[in-house]
Fold Antitoxin.
Amino acid sequence: MARGIAQDPSAVSVPTEQFRKMRPARELLGDDKADALAKRRGRPAKPVGERKVNQTLRIDPDVLAAYKATGSGWQTLMNEALRDYAAARRLLPRR
């Protein structure tokens, strides 16, 4: 990792004395502005029971290509197809 940093022309070395002089953003900006900087971006997290699960799944290339060809939202479409299949075969509990 240090080799990559050394090769980066925009990387700068900050002297120890300069680090000692640094102050926390909260101290310089105040609580409100510091909180705004620290605020999480993006969508809020879903409740634990509604979150999706990351899973590696082996799929035939032509099937994957067909779903991807539908455009944005292809993963949701695939999830709905799997849900419909599982529900039709009573593999899922009733909601």
About this structure: The mean pLDDT is 90. The CA atoms of residues 87 and 93 lie 8 Å apart.
